[in-house]
Amino acid sequence: MLLDATPMLGRRTGIGAYTANLVSAIARRAETASGELQVSVTTWSARGRRIDDLPPHVRQVGLPVPARALRAGWRRSPFPPVELVAGRCDVVHGTNFVSPPTLRAREVVTIHDLTYELHARTVTPDVLDYRTLVPRALARGAHVVTPSHAVARQVAERYDLPHGRVTATPLGVDPAWQRAEPLDEQDRHRLGLPARYLLFVGSLDPRKNLPALVAAHRAAREQEVDVPDLVLAGPAGRAEGVAGPGIRQTGWLEDADLRRVVAGCRALVLPSLDEGFGLPVIEALACGRPVLVSDVPALREVGGGHELACDPSVEGLEAGLLALLDVPDGEPERAVRRAWAAAFTWDRTAALTLDVYRAVAP
């Protein structure tokens, strides 16, 4: 089997984390499969960039070909087939919306969400290409995997696919999140964080709805002085134009720091207009933290009833932020959140994905 590992290049956001953890979990299973599983990855990169942290026995293969050039070709025709640029394989998995055409290999494609269809005004031209590339892959018979059952239902309905063509493979959470401890005073000082804070972790993608969250936080503080500061972490932590009273920005955080920042927050807030899964939500629950999410199906699914949901408008988010002040956060509540999150494992993601590979393999 061949997986597209391009999302693993550079700093990894949600899809990069999904791809890296999926590859690692599949590799662990391959080690005990007596040679039954042969795992390779490829990257669409003109410079042929190497991935430094691949698991043992996972090979990186393929010619140095830029992703943009490949997509331009695939928008118009089934050329070049994946075998021409990455070698022979039985199953090829496009982990990031794009499934390459093949000569003989069977196709699997991960559709993380339908933002490119449902919120087209919020995405880049490259993402809009999915409106052409996804239907082409489906017409060739690609099997779809999704990060949540909510997205599986949306995809089946949008593309009129039978039940057997779409499989939900819910994402996982690294066990390290369960063990994360809050920052001590010295590390809070190093990162410029107060003792009490709300937390947003994410990118500046318009669908993340960050401007509405910032405006809602400002309005909530005008209503109630006890609303904690809002900390922006990840790419959003370097956003321009959001500085102001009660707003802290950390920039990009290494994994160890991020886990501790999440573990110490009063609550995590994810106000997205749309999500396919919402990794920060399950990671915060694994730390035992309360979460406030926008009322979209995937986030309600991942929250499992342990989330507080609100309308993603400024007014809805303001009400949600004020309601967070009354959310119980004793050890019994934290234990329940951790127990829910513990069911989400990357091993389960890999097992479900491997079932798909075996079902479609020639």
Task: Briefly note the structural class of the backbone.
Answer: alpha/beta
Mean pLDDT: 94
Tell me the series of helices and strands, N- to C-terminal.
EHEEHHEEHHHEHEHEHEEHEHEHEHHH
Q: Taking Cα atoms only, what radius of gyration do you get, to the nearest Å?
A: 21 Å
Most strands sheet: 7 strands, parallel
In the predicted model, the low-confidence regions spanning at least 5 consecutive residues are: none
Count of DSSP-assigned helices = 15
Strand content: 5-15%
> Count of DSSP E strands?
13
Distance between the amino and carboxyl termini: 12 Å
Largest sheet, spatial ordering of strands: 3-2-1-4-5-6-7
Number of domains: 2
CATH superfamily of the largest domain: Glycogen Phosphorylase B
CATH uppermost class of the largest domain: Alpha Beta
The CATH topology of the largest domain turns out to be: Rossmann fold
CATH architecture of the largest domain: 3-Layer(aba) Sandwich
Shape field: globular
Helix content: 40-55%
Keywords: Glycosyltransferase, Transferase
Organism: Miniimonas arenae
GO molecular function: glycosyltransferase activity
Domain Glycosyltransferase subfamily 4-like N-terminal: 14-176
